[in-house]
Write a structure and sequence with these properties.
By secondary structure, this protein is of the alpha+beta class. 38% of the residues lie in helices and 15% in strands.
C-alpha cells in the first residue's frame, strides 16, 4: 500500500514539474535551424559526379557479354555438380555421350 502511494505521489510531482518547466526552455540547448539551401550536399554531389565521370573516361566501361566456353570432358569424367535441387554443368560431354544427371558423369 505504501509503494502504491509513493508511486502516485511521484507521478503527480513529475507531472506538475513538467507542466511548470515547460515554458522555461532555454534557447541555448536547442539545435540551430537548418539553412534554407543545402549547399554542402549539393557540393558533395557535384564532386562525386565529377569523380565518376573521370573514372568512366579513364577505365572505359564495357557492357559487352562475353561468350562462355565450356570445356570438353571424356567418358567417365565428372560433368556436373549438384547443389541442392540445382545441377551445374562443369564441362560438356564428347559427341555421342551425355551427362547422366544421377551419377553426374559422362556416359
Amino acid at each position: 500500500m505504501e509503494n502504491l502511494r509513493a508511486v502516485i505521489y511521484l507521478s503527480i510531482f513529475l507531472s506538475v514539474m513538467t507542466y511548470v518547466c515547460q515554458g522555461e526552455r532555454s534557447t541555448e540547448n536547442q539545435l540551430p535551424s537548418a539553412p534554407d539551401e543545402p549547399t554542402f550536399g549539393l557540393e558533395l554531389a557535384e564532386a562525386l559526379q565529377g569523380l565518376l565521370d573521370e573514372a568512366d573516361s579513364r577505365v572505359g566501361l564495357s557492357v559487352e557479354k562475353k561468350a562462355s566456353v565450356i570445356p570438353r570432358c571424356d567418358v567417365g569424367e565428372r560433368c556436373a555438380m549438384k547443389h541442392g535441387p540445382r545441377i551445374g554443368r562443369l564441362c560438356d560431354c564428347l559427341r555421342g555421350t551425355a551427362c547422366n544427371t544421377f551419377f553426374l558423369r559422362c556416359y
